[in-house]
Each structure stands twice: as structure tokens, then as C-alpha cells.
């Protein structure tokens, strides 16, 4: 299964899902041919009739944009999963908010351990 999203991302595989979104591994298709393609993570918000998903998804996008635009020199910024891109997809169930992140490079448990050690050090 390989889908192209707005001509910029080629979906490779589903990574997971939850109540309000699905997460996909994708290849970022850069417009410059000399740059190698890079893996990204797409978080696609779902639209459910019993949940105010459009409003909640838009709020999550605004919060993620705000956190991503903070001071990159702050010592805690290394733990922020910064937003790389965002776009909307129209589907049979309405509009979906899509957020693009760098793919995590190490296991989540390792990141959790590093954060815990940093928070309780000293």
C-alpha cells in the first residue's frame, strides 16, 4: 500500500492508531532532486461523528505550531517533537488535519528514561 499525499509524501506503512488519529511512516518527497528522500511521520486526525474532532484537531495543530516555534536554544527543546509541516486532506468523512514530524530515531522507552533522568537530576 503506497499513497501519495498532496504530492509531497509517499505513505509507506501504518505505525499506529488511537481514538483521534492514525500515525503513518512516509517518505518525504523533496522538490530538489539532488536531496535524498527522508522518512517522516504523518499524524492524521480522524473525524468521528460523536467527537468534536475538527475543532479539537485544529486546536492540537495550533498548540503544536506554538510549541514548535519556541526558542530552539532552550535546553528542553531537544525533547520537543517539532512540527515540520501541516496540511489538510478532504475525505468522505470531511476535512482531516495532517501533521508532519521527523521520525523518532530511537525507542520511546529510551527517550522516556532520558527525560526522567533529566527531570530528577540534581
From TrEMBL:
Organism: Aspergillus glaucus CBS 516.65
A Gene Ontology term for the protein's cellular component: nucleus
Entry EC no(s): 2.7.11.1
Species classification: Eukaryota, Fungi, Dikarya, Ascomycota, Pezizomycotina
SUPFAM superfamilies, alphabetized: Protein kinase-like (PK-like)
Molecular function in Gene Ontology: ATP binding; protein serine/threonine kinase activity
Sorted UniProt keywords: ATP-binding, Kinase, Nucleotide-binding, Serine/threonine-protein kinase, Transferase
Signal peptide: none
GO biological process: regulation of mRNA processing; spliceosomal complex assembly
Catalyzed chemical reaction(s): L-seryl-[protein] + ATP = O-phospho-L-seryl-[protein] + ADP + H(+); L-threonyl-[protein] + ATP = O-phospho-L-threonyl-[protein] + ADP + H(+)
Keyword Kinase: yes
Keyword presence, Nucleus: no
Protein name (Swiss-Prot/TrEMBL): non-specific serine/threonine protein kinase
InterPro entries per UniProt: Kinase-like_dom_sf, SRPK
Amino acid at each position: 500500500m503506497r499513497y501519495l499525499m498532496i504530492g509531497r509524501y509517499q505513505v509507506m506503512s501504518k505505525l499506529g492508531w488511537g481514538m483521534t488519529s492514525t500515525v503513518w511512516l512516509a517518505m518525504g518527497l523533496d522538490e530538489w532532486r539532488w536531496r535524498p528522500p527522508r522518512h517522516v511521520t504523518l499524524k492524521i486526525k480522524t473525524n468521528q461523528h460523536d467527537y468534536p474532532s475538527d475543532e479539537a484537531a485544529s486546536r492540537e495543530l495550533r498548540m503544536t505550531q506554538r510549541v514548535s516555534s519556541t526558542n530552539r536554544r532552550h535546553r528542553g527543546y531537544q525533547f520537543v517533537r517539532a512540527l515540520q509541516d501541516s496540511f489538510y486532506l478532504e475525505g468522505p468523512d470531511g476535512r482531516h488535519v495532517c501533521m508532519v514530524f521527523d521520525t523518532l530515531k530511537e525507542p520511546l522507552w529510551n527517550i522516556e528514561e532520558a527525560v526522567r533522568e533529566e527531570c530528577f537530576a540534581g
